[in-house]
Amino acid sequence: MVESERYRHQIEWEISQWKQKIFKRPGLLENSSRKFSGWLNAKIPDKVHQTVTSTIKGIVNTVLFTAKFVPNGPVLLETPLAARDAKAKGVISRYQKIASAEGAGTGAGGVLLGLVDFPALLAIKMKMLFELAHIYGYDTADLRERLYLLHVFQLAFSGFEQRKKIFAVLSDWNTYQNQFAEQSNAEPQVDWRTFQQEYRDSIDFRKMLQMVPGIGAIVGAWANYSLIDDLGETAINCYRIRLLQLENNQ
Prior knowledge:
This protein is mainly α. It contains ten helices and no strands. Helix 4 packs antiparallel against helix 5, helix 4 (81-107) runs antiparallel to helix 10 and helix 6 packs across helix 10 (216-249). The protein starts with a helix and ends with a helix.
């Protein structure tokens, strides 16, 4: 068996393990965390929700409609998947270090700096996704590829039911992006309120601990490291699936 075939079997197994992980029904801890987040969200004034939603929408729109996050490096073409994966893991490791340092710094500052961490970490995640897209051969100068990244992000940071819907879109991305391309002056139809609540609910447990006096710096570094790890794993497997589908259709 040639090396590429062995590697293909290996990543197919890894993809199957990842799918089991993301489609595993939430356990007691996750359910409790989400119930608490739901209770907390109900107590927060609607104006606050609107402000947070506007902040996230602003950051994501910057990602989608400007060139701010587009990497300077080339899009990798004609590159074996094993080499792409190795390079991607190196990029994820680099961003984990960046995010950990940022989380430790803001975690040491308590609640106020913890709030600063929210948009900063979001920007770090998006920048990493752009680099990963280029590693797997997709040019983020294309708006459709940025929209793909937005769905990858949502898959990584959504609840069980929402993950199923997003994965279905990603699994049939060509159909979705063709519909998007056919629309005149197309702009992504995003439920921003749901987007921000799913994201916040997914990270709340880890990020709330970051604001506890005395342990904030340690927890902040751990939380940001693990959140980057979750997103990186999701991105790698989404692109693996996409490239394997492309190969199978050729």
